[in-house]
């Protein structure tokens, strides 16, 4: 999603007192994307991907990923504009190009955007964890993104 500061990131935030991680994840999805987390769309332990401890801030970040149908994704895209935090914390959802063209466009170009914190690493781990892309496909996209960034700095 696009954040208020122009960076790319994921829905999330601080867990409130008395809240479990999963309750916090589902609350943030409702607040930031207006996702109906009841029934079929509730994030559960089955959706856990990994955790990362940010030693500098002391925050522990947890990534969850779940599969939704294309129809549900379109509903989420449209509904994001009705979310409680739309316009203040979030500016909307972006689709990620999952291909790498012969010219190095697609995912390599997307990876050159400015991500918040560890969001880029989280995205790449989620793509691998879910089997959306192979380790080789991800590695190629990262390599081409780095080469393109280096070429622009010359």
Describe the structure.
The strands form two sheets. Strands 1-4 form a two-stranded antiparallel sheet. It has a two-stranded antiparallel sheet with strand order 2-3. The protein has five helices and four strands; from the N terminus they run βαββαβααα. It folds into two domains: 1-95, Nucleoside Triphosphate Pyrophosphohydrolase (Alpha-Beta Complex); 96-154. By secondary structure, the chain is α+β, with helices and mostly antiparallel strands.
Distance between the termini: 30 Å
Give the total of domains.
2
In terms of DSSP E residues, the strand content is 5-15%
The number of distinct helices, counting runs of at least 4 residues, comes to 5
Name the overall outline.
globular
Task: Provide the spatial order of strands within the biggest beta sheet.
Answer: 1-4
Q: What's the alpha carbon Rg, rounded to whole Å?
A: 16 Å
Sequence of secondary-structure elements: EHEEHEHHH
Mean pLDDT: 90
CATH architecture of the largest domain: Alpha-Beta Complex
Proportion in helices: 25-40%
Q: Can you identify the CATH superfamily of the largest domain?
A: Nucleoside Triphosphate Pyrophosphohydrolase
What oligomeric arrangement do these chains adopt? single chain
**Low-confidence segments, ≥5 residues, pLDDT <50?**
none
Structural class: alpha+beta
Q: Tell me the total number of β-strands.
A: 4
CATH class of the largest domain reads: Alpha Beta
* CATH level 3 topology of the largest domain: Nucleoside Triphosphate Pyrophosphohydrolase
What summary fits the major beta sheet? 2 strands, antiparallel
């Amino acid at each position: 999603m696009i954040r208020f500061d122009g960076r790319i990131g994921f829905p999330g935030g601080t867990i409130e007192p008395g809240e479990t991680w999963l309750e916090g994840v589902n609350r943030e999805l409702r607040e930031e994307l207006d996702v109906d987390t009841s029934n079929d769309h509730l994030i559960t332990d089955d959706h856990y991907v990994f955790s990362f401890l940010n030693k500098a801030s002391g925050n522990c970040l947890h990534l969850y990923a779940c599969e939704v149908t294309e129809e549900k994704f379109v509903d989420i895209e449209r509904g994001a504009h009705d979310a409680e935090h739309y316009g203040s914390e979030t500016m909307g959802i972006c689709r990620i190009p999952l291909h790498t063209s012969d010219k190095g466009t697609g995912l390599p170009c997307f990876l050159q955007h400015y991500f918040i914190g560890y969001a880029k690493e989280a995205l790449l781990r989620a793509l691998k964890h879910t089997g959306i892309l192979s380790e080789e496909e991800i590695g190629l996209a990262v390599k081409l993104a780095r080469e393109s960034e280096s070429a622009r700095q010359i």
